[in-house]
Amino acid sequence: MSLRYFGFAKTVLIALVLATTPLFAINIILNQYAERRAVSELEAMGNVTIRRAEEAISTTVSLLQRLDRDDIQSCNAEDRVIYEKQIVEHGMIDAIGLADATGQRMCIIPDRELSEQVILPPAKVDGPLVGIGMLDRSYLGARAAVISWDLKDQTRIFAEVTPAVIATDPGPEYLRSYRRAELRLGNNLLWYNVGGYNSQASDPGDMLSVEVASELYPLSVTLTVPNAAAAFLVQDLKVIAAAGCAGIALLFVAIGVWLSWRPESEANDEFVAAIRNGEFIPFYQPVMDIETGRLRGCEVLMRWRRPNGVIVSPGQFMAYAENNGHIFDMTRHMMRVSSEEVGELYGENPDFKLSINLFAGHFLDREIISDINSIFEKSRISFQQIVVEVTERHPLQDMELARKIIAELQALGVRVALDDVGTGHGGMAYLQKLGVDIIKIDKMFVDTIGSDDNSTTIVDSMVELADNLGMGIIAEGVELEEQIERLLELGVTAAQGYYFAQPMAADEFIEFAERMEEKAREKARLAAEAAAAEQAANEAAMSSAA
After folding, report:
1. pLDDT value at residue 267
2. Spelled out in words, what is the top-level CATH class assigned to the domain 267-527?
3. pTM for the predicted model, two decimal places
4. How many whole angstroms separate alpha carbon 222 and alpha carbon 46?
5. Within its chain, how far is the Cα of 534 from the centroid?
């Protein structure tokens, strides 16, 4: 009883770990998403601030240049009237005036008391035409800016830009409530600052920071928020994920309790009986040519059809089958059944490929070679149409022996594909050591292609390596048209996934193949008719010209 109780406790513990592990993964993924989203929002906020500052400077400089060009550059009454008109027309400008060589105001419109305060640096013979500085006046964290234009006579015409122009507060509320923004001119001249650090996250190590610089002027804006602010974006999703994982945990515990009290021999006997009764059946997932839309073949996937008709996915039984050695009989059964079910289709389409999944144990002896020989030797499916797939997720124990077995398979005409490339133990070293013919891009990279630079770079590297080594390449898990477009841009021409079709029974797959062939023939017919029409038009045009 104590041993059985120990087994029960162990099973429950494993069930809990299996159920809660996804929650940790989901939290990590959501946190990373929230941080990326927050950084993107901060960059957008920074760009808004920079654009407003650039617009204020450019508009004011253009006005001052125009006044200089029109010889409106004095403090007389006629020029003052024009200054007042420009202030009314340009809402961002509070005042226009002239400053002497020392930087003091000579006059200012609207009229105000002139102090001896220096608002501009002393004029220099070789100084810049445009000057930008800050005044003490401020509004909502923004200071009034003074922008000047050198008149080349030791005087400068200047305009004071209202602080309200730059006192913007863009961005979503969940960031604006906690962010700090600082707009600086040059190295340390502060133009605008708003917000502050929240008590939730005062440690700089717990902050997200973004800096955006102007391409036109020496302006830069720095925005900072605590990580906790970004987390608000996914707070509801985390609650949903936790509830879902709690439900899965209860289900796993219930299954674990049932399995722990069930005699192991009974479970094994049921599995053996399922194999003997032919309950494990092949499903076929089409592999498509995404350039032409034609069918290239399929991958054979195993399903468990229980006596009550329920279909069980391989994730629920494959590990057990591999660990207990049942996978060898099951794989032989898959090959026999598929050769019978789609043999006629493949005999009529010699270019079709049939992909069969193997696991690491198949490469510990030459039995798989004998199996393929005996099953397909008299089948309508030729050796040249067979592709065996070995996954990179589980390491091969004897690389030397595995390489020899692969070489013998290739000598028969069988092609070898490496599945899940980039996700497992071998990496690109497998491609060189094993001498495979095809590499398959894992769904993990396809899901984020185009949105994640790292995934795009990895796929691009796979395509380049495949081209250099003369290998084929297939993308798995394609679900969106955008993914197809991006794959074509990167040079991938073969793919499989739910975008085209889910894994299906043999009769459905045969119907699917016939539909695809009919579409291809119709497309070819229309193309031929279009070409004939174009040729006839060209001949008619030539006859008319003659």
Report:
1. 59
2. alpha beta
3. 0.52
4. 7
5. 43
